[in-house]
Amino acid sequence: MLMEMSTEIDGKFWKDRKVLVTGASGFIGSHLVEELVRVGARVRAFVRYTSRGDIGMLEDVEESLLDEVEIFFGDLRDESAVERSMEDVDVVFHLGAVISIPYSYLNPEEVVQVNVMGTLSLLQAARKFDIPCLVHVSTSEVYGTAHYVPIDENHPKRGQSPYSASKIGADELARSFHLTYGLPVRIVRPFNTFGPRQSQRAVISTIIVQALRGKEIHLGNLETVRDFTFVKDTVRGLVKAAESDKAVGQEINLGTGKGWSIGETARIVLGLLGEEKKIVVDKERFRPEKSEVYRLISDNSRAKELLSWSPRYSFEEGLKITVDWFKEHLELYRREVP
Ligand SMILES: NC(=O)c1ccc[n+]([C@@H]2O[C@H](COP(=O)([O-])OP(=O)(O)OC[C@H]3O[C@@H](n4cnc5c(N)ncnc54)[C@H](O)[C@@H]3O)[C@@H](O)[C@H]2O)c1
């Protein structure tokens, strides 16, 4: 396999613990499942059903690890399925969501049903079964364009897209279940995450795929700035949040504290690939002006303090691993999606 298991994770804590992961077939979810199985947890993976039995990016998980995973097919919009998935579970990681911002412009209703109502069903079931640990995964997009940087957890929230609004709704429901019913929720808020298996709608994946395939690289606004965390670091943060009682009831940013413009990022990727391709600014790829989030850079002091978490991979190290993986898996990336 391409990456080593991260150390620091408490093997004793996870041994034989029954864990539900929603969004398990996705980018971050598949890495999380892999890590949890490695440290001895018994993982149930909530996977959106298709008649092909598609398990998404879990296909890329080493077979011996995947054999240990219980696949639970269902849809987050189905309250009874969500409830059944949580029977006999000790820890829940909630990553399942419709995550594309352009798709949320087109289909806001679906986005709200999955991201908000799906989260509500999950919280209701967690309450019913008295789940002792729930990690709800938020996103830096809830902050909107930074009023100040680095962005700490007290920064105002602003739904600049239906996606962002749905995640704010989900976060607030999670918080309210902690405040009202004492549900032991941890709200963890990754800033942009990148790595192997990410869908092509994410900026780093699209840069890599276009650099490997095309003559030119078509991107939207090159000036926007993002704080990029390598997926293994994000996963370690999620796992540490579950381990820590100090994280209960908290919102916790996960990010590196450094910002990179999209233009710079594209140039670094091209440098790693040894390619000299033209970068074309494509107006079709711009978000509506007031929906654009210009700058996201995290203050990660709380993660450092409560979880003893800080990123281990530099941007370049993470990019190198990612580029190598994409070179070997380019056939998975045939089609651009919104
Ligand atoms: N990738 C990032 O940069 C990033 C940054 C911050 C936060 N996040 C959050 O992390 C989580 C995972 O994101 P990701 O990048 O892995 O995205 P992803 O699209 O790869 O994974 C999302 C998963 O949710 C599942 N899902 C969607 N609708 C569903 C439904 N109706 N029923 C059941 N499952 C459904 C999808 O099948 C997919 O497996 C999301 O909650 C996202 O908001 C991601």
Notable traits:
binds nicotinamide-adenine-dinucleotide, two-stranded parallel sheet, 338 residues, Rossmann fold, alpha/beta, globular, seven-stranded parallel sheet, single chain, 13 strands
The gist of it:
With 338 residues, the chain is of the alpha/beta class.
Tell me, briefly, the overall form: globular
| Ligand inventory | nicotinamide-adenine-dinucleotide
Number of strands: 13
Parts with pLDDT < 50 across at least 5 consecutive residues: 1-5
- How much is the average pLDDT? 95
Percent of sequence in beta strands: 15-25%
Reconstruct the topology from this structure.
Elements: H1 11-14, E1 18-22, H2 27-38, E2 42-48, H3 63-66, E3 70-74, H4 79-85, E4 91-94, H5 101-106, H6 108-128, E5 133-137, H7 162-181, E6 185-190, E7 193-194, H8 203-213, E8 216-219, E9 225-226, E10 229-230, H9 231-243, E11 251-254, E12 260-261, H10 262-273, E13 278-281, H11 301-307, H12 315-328
Helix pairs in contact: 2-9, 4-6, 6-7, 8-10, 10-12
Nicotinamide-adenine-dinucleotide is lined by residues 23, 25-29, 48, 56, 75-77, 95-99, 114, 137, 139, 167, 190, 192-193, 199.
